[in-house]
Amino acid sequence: MKIILQNLTKKFPSRSKKSREDVIAVNDFNFEIPDGKLVGLLGPSGCGKSTTLNLICGLQKPTAGKIFFGDDDVTNLPPENRGVGLVFQNYALYPHLTVQKNIMFPLENLKGKDKLTKEEMQKRALDAARLVQIQELMDRRPGELSGGQQQRVAIARALVKMPRVLLLDEPLSNLDARLRLQTREEIKRIQKETGITTIFVTHDQDEAMSISDLIVVMKEGVVQQIGRPQEVYDNPVNLFVAKFLGTPPINVFRGTLRDGKLFIGDDACLDVLCAAPQKALEAGTRRGTPGSDSAAPGSSEPDTAACDASGPDTAARGSSGQTTAARHASGPDTATPGSSGQTTAARDVLVGIRPEGFILQEDGPLHCRLDRLEVMGRDVSVVSTHECSENMSIRSIIAAESSVDPGSKVVRFGLKPSKVFIFDKDTGNRIS
Amino acid sequence: MEKNNLKGWLYLLPAFLFLGAFMIYPLIDVFVYSFEEGYNSASQTFSGVGTYNYSYVLHDPYFLQALKNTFILVIITVPLSTGIALLISVGLSSIKPLRDLFQTVYFLPYVTNTLAVGLVFMILFKKTPYSDGLVNLLINCFGQASVDFIDGPYWAKMFVLCFYTIWVVMPFKILILTSALASVNQVYYNAARVDGTSRFRIFRRITLPMISPMIFYLVITGFIGAFKAYSDAVALFGTNLNAAEMNTIVGYVYDMLYGDSGGYPSYASAAAIILFAIVLTITCINLLVSRKHVHY
Q1: Which of B160, B177, B158, B174 is CA-nearest to residue B110?
Q2: pLDDT tens per residue across span A168-182
């Protein structure tokens, strides 16, 4: 079942006496979730993920906008008529009922022609229990189950009425680390087996990236970016998305764009203009990928939209220095500092470099003060500092076989252009 | 270890002394009294040991009347007061505006002086030379003849007693049940709503089981409280309850000890032990039933 959200907005009346302004939990959402996909709503806590989920399932009514399941407008339907299964964060299993009765509960509500006999209900419940592999726990009460088992029961209860859409609210947050890994595989498997369009909410980027077909990154009620996990990771539209995805997190530096080169401190690290156009173009197209044409996610946020809508040329609107740099960029082959002929004004930017974007080089351009090495076995993480770094320390991951002298004071890196993102200093929007 | 034990007992001693002197000894004493035949309180002597006291009490028409009254009172007031309190609590928790006001209004009887309550009931039910009481005015409105609720037929007096009892115990039950309802996690209702559960089914399958421990508590204390009813009857019908046919078991015990026909501690003890046995049996039955229907 395809899900389309159109200009979806949810405001809560303000509780505080000081400000009369409403709290906007979900701000003008537009996106389309293709049929049969597993979608992760990702964002820090308080960004409106759960509200979005509640709007989709119908527990809350949107202030404005529409929700479509396929071609049906379900905006004003009560939850029971939408055909959604919802798994709550704390599972909400009825403690006084056995597992079997819990799973059968939604079926017992069916009326009229959908009414099932007791045998049919038991069979359906058993089928659902088999799917999540809890069939031997049917006579227990929720209090006698472990967290992971309760989670499965909750999923079985959501699946038993064969919903068109399965919604999971922070499905893994109440589980311990090992169980979390296991359960997320399980969710992926169940989703694949049933083919039900599934949306889950999480604040854990690992979780979202690992199992989602599509992730929706949110911040303060606004969609930041939608795309396949790898695409979003490789091409974040702004600093927020770049920082939110990836462990260890991205390293952020204060840098300067001057003469077609990216300077971090006094080190001219990268020939920006060579790397820029292709990537920026990707950034432009990426927006369209998640859904189909009807969803226009970019429109949700004016500045990202500007950055994204038509690639690099409009990306830097409002900054004269950058406009020239961008025009440069359109001709990748000729983009050497000399050929441009113009001396453009220096522009302060923020530079994000993924930990894996560093290459250990004897004569690398970026000089960092070596702090320590952390050996992981599979690779080595080099912890260093730089006066232009926004973070306390820079973490770069290099191959285990590369040799760094732990005693040396300075470590020099080259950079992989595809792992370096340049953001506007003020708006945080991606420049290249 | 030995020393610590001694200290522990020392700390417990005051409590043991008081409990022993004022609870356990009287309990045993009542039990002993009830088997002493022909006890004379003046000379503190008795003629023999046996079950004559019990057979006397069980054949006393006043006691049988009291037993009947008490049972009617219990059977009518406990389910009715709990049920009505539950309805009112559910109503209270499903309204937003004025909830505090209503909660206060419903709680008022609990803090109202007994004499004031008695006065209110007099205005409602008592026949005076000037008026037949408010309730009778209402009855007259429907074209029926007045009923004397205080000195009239048995059913009318029983009605007033039950009405009064329910009215008096209601506030506490509402208080307990509203807080029990408020403590049910909203997420269960959301889950049920997503599954399309009807309101009645939500109440029966989710709300009731979730607050069943509190309901059970109210039923048990309600039973015990109703079996011990006495002062309410006195407030309504005066001290000569036997004459009014409105005596209760506790009232009978009191009369045997101190009433006009007083001075029979043996009979009083036997009646008290019978009451104890009844309450114990009912509570045990309650506990057995609760095992199946109460979910902690």
Answers
A1: B174
A2: 998 888 888 888 888
Q: Which residue type occupies A378?
A: R
Residue B138 has pLDDT above 90, yes or no: no
Q: What number of CA atoms fall less than 13 Å from residue A314's CA on the CB side?
A: 12
Counting the structural domains of chain B, the total is 1
Contact (CB, 8 A) for A300 and A27: yes
| Amino acid (1-letter code) at residue B252 | Y
In a domain, B33, yes or no: no
CATH topology classification for A3-234:
Rossmann fold (3.40.50)
Q: How far is CA A296 from CA A3, A226, A281, A307, A351, in A?
A: 14, 10, 17, 14, 28
Give the Å distances, CA to CA, from A373 to A217, A336, A403, A405, A408.
32, 36, 11, 9, 11
Question: Distance between the two ends of chain A, CA-based, in angstroms?
Answer: 36
What CATH number is associated with residue B287? 1.10.3720.10
Whole-angstrom Cα distance, residue A79 to residue A81?
5
Which chain A residues are within 8 Å of B196, Cβ to Cβ? 78-81, 106, 109-110
Q: Which residues of B touch A125 (CB under 8 A)?
A: none
Which residue is associated with the tokens 């909203």? Answer: B186
Residue A300 makes CB contacts below 8 A (sequence gap 6+) with: A27, A28, A29, A30, A222, A223
Q: Of A86, A96, A110, which is closest to B194 when you measure between CB atoms? A: A86
Residue B185 in contact with partner chain A when CB distance is under 8 A: yes
Asked whether residue B41 is assigned to any structural domain, the reply reads no
pLDDT at residue A67 in the model: 92
- Candidates A95, A96, A105; nearest CB to B195: A105
Considering chain A, what is the average pLDDT of its residues?
80
**Burial call B227-249: b when 16+ CB within 10 Å, e when fewer:** bebbebbbbbbeeebbebbbbbb
Contacts of B198 in chain A (CB under 8 A): 109
Our CA dihedral for A84, A229, A352, A330, rounded to 10 degrees, sits at -110
Mean pLDDT of A56-85: 89
Give mean pLDDT, residues A238-267: 87
Of B294, B277, B289, B286, the closest CA to residue B221 belongs to: B286
Gap from A187 CA to chain B (nearest CA, Å) = 20
Whether residue A324 has pLDDT greater than 90: no
CA–CA separation, B148 vs B130, rounded Å?
A: 14
The dihedral built from the CA positions of residue A237, A239, A240 and A246, taken in this order, carries a sign that is positive
pLDDT band at A343 (very low <50, low <70, confident <90, very high): low
| Cβ–Cβ gap B190/A59 under 8 Å | yes
The token pair at A91 is 């599972």
Is there a domain that residue B58 lies in?
yes
Residues of B within 8 A of A86 (CB-CB) are 190-191, 194
Structure-token match 């227990």, residue found? A140
| A274 CB-side CA count, 13 A | 12
Nearest residue in A to B292, CA atom: A96
pLDDT score recorded for residue B55 = 92
Residues in CB range of B181: below 8 A, 6 or more apart = B89, B90, B93, B207, B211
The CATH code of domain A239-424 reads 2.40.50.100
**Could you give the ipTM of this predicted complex?**
0.73
Coil vs helix vs strand at A175: coil
Structural domain harbouring B228: 54-111+166-293
pTM for the full predicted model:
0.75
| Domain assignment of residue B124, yes or no | no
Q: What residues does each domain of chain A span?
A: 3-234, 239-424
